[in-house]
Structures are given as structure tokens and as C-alpha cells.
Automatic annotation (TrEMBL):
<dbReference type="GO" id="GO:0051213">
    <property type="term" value="F:dioxygenase activity"/>
</dbReference>
<keyword id="KW-0223">Dioxygenase</keyword>
<protein>
    <submittedName>
        <fullName>Glyoxalase/bleomycin resistance protein/dioxygenase</fullName>
    </submittedName>
</protein>
<feature type="domain" description="VOC">
    <location>
        <begin position="4"/>
        <end position="126"/>
    </location>
</feature>
<dbReference type="InterPro" id="IPR037523">
    <property type="entry name" value="VOC_core"/>
</dbReference>
<keyword id="KW-0560">Oxidoreductase</keyword>
<dbReference type="InterPro" id="IPR004360">
    <property type="entry name" value="Glyas_Fos-R_dOase_dom"/>
</dbReference>
<dbReference type="Pfam" id="PF00903">
    <property type="entry name" value="Glyoxalase"/>
</dbReference>
<dbReference type="InterPro" id="IPR029068">
    <property type="entry name" value="Glyas_Bleomycin-R_OHBP_Dase"/>
</dbReference>
Length: 138
């Protein structure tokens, strides 16, 4: 297997609400796609939104999961203030603030929000991880 993730697909309970959150609220660029799915271009990969029931059916598993799913996505930015700004943008778009930005035990600054389906996103400034011209951020 080559070391990359081509696409991350999230099962959405309310697909239209999730599309609005990511497209209008966070400003992710949406690709043309059929109405039952949405794709957003990321830096070298894609984010997909698909109905939760349909995604579970496609994988052959139950859609009834609850609680912590054991996964969080992360978005690195170039400053502590950018962490706070993105957390505020997400909350204004309908996210739930899970953990405000604060100093971390590993020497950075990070906080968490949950999207409309409860998927966790960490927004972090890691002074040891360069975010530069090849990394889109913001």
C-alpha cells in the first residue's frame, strides 16, 4: 500500500446540512458530484460526504454506532491565533466547540470542534511541524 489517504468519507445523518457546513461554513471547494454524495478537494486528497445509512450499507456494517468513533481529523495552521479563528469559524457555521484552543502537553496549541454529525476535528498549531506553501491551510 502506498503511504497516502486518497479520500476520507464521512457518513452524514443530514447530508444537505453537512454539505452546507463544509462548503459554506468552512469554505471547502466542492467538486461536481451526484446529489447523493458530495466531494471536496483538499490538499492532495478529497473529503467525501455520503448518507450515513448508505455508507454503512456499502461497507456491509450497521449504521447504528454511537459515542466516540475512535477517530479525529486534524487541520494544522501556522499560528495560535489561526487555531482560535478557525474554531470560531466552525462554531459560527454550526459546529460544537468541544475543546477551546489551549497550550498542549507536546508544546503546541490546539482545540477541537465537532461537525454537525459529531465528527471530531482538531485544529492545531504545531511549532515543530512546518505549514508552508505546499500545505494549504486556513
Amino acid at each position: 500500500m502506498k503511504p497516502r489517504i486518497s479520500m476520507l468519507t464521512l457518513g452524514a445523518r443530514d447530508l444537505e446540512k453537512s454539505i452546507r457546513f463544509y462548503e459554506q461554513g468552512l469554505g471547502l471547494p466542492r467538486m461536481p458530484s451526484p446529489p447523493q454524495v458530495a466531494f471536496f478537494t483538499l490538499n492532495g486528497s478529497w473529503l467525501g460526504l455520503y448518507g450515513r445509512e448508505a455508507l454503512a450499507e456499502d461497507a456491509g456494517v450497521s449504521a447504528g454506532g454511537s459515542g466516540f468513533a475512535g477517530i479525529a481529523m486534524a487541520h494544522n495552521v501556522d499560528s495560535e491565533s489561526a487555531v482560535d479563528e478557525l474554531l470560531e469559524q466552525a462554531v459560527a457555521a454550526g459546529a460544537q466547540l468541544v475543546k477551546p484552543g489551549r497550550k498542549t502537553s507536546w508544546g503546541g496549541y490546539a482545540g477541537y470542534f465537532a461537525d454537525p454529525d459529531g465528527y471530531l476535528w482538531e485544529v492545531a498549531h504545531n511549532p515543530f511541524f512546518w505549514v508552508g506553501p505546499h500545505d494549504e491551510e486556513g
